[in-house]
Structure prediction request, 126 residues.
Amino acid sequence: MFDMAQYAGAERRRSPRVSSDIKARICAKDITGDVTVLDVSFHGALIKTSSLIEIGETLSLAMHIPTGPVLLDFTGCVVRVVTVCSALGFRSFNVGVEFLNILQDQKQKLSETIFYLFKKAGHQGG
Prediction:
């Protein structure tokens, strides 16, 4: 499995995040739709959505894996929501999601995805 600890730097989270632009689909209490995964780690993701999702809400997240035609499905809990307003007055939400009950095969695919994203960003090692 890919060891992200070597890239931790100043990151103080349980596992450092890596930037991404992965397309995904969410299904929450009142919302089903397409989102963008802004960053991802072994414990969660930051997603950008046009709909407000409440802190504490459980959702499903299906990410399109950049290394193949596979969807990686997670159940997660919303732990943070930040409202983002554009200069043109458009509003979106950056939603922090903590993954729940990750299975071993999900960990492996997630590890491969994170490794791919680090390499794509120009990091060395692995």
In short: Residues 104-120 form the longest helix (17 residues).
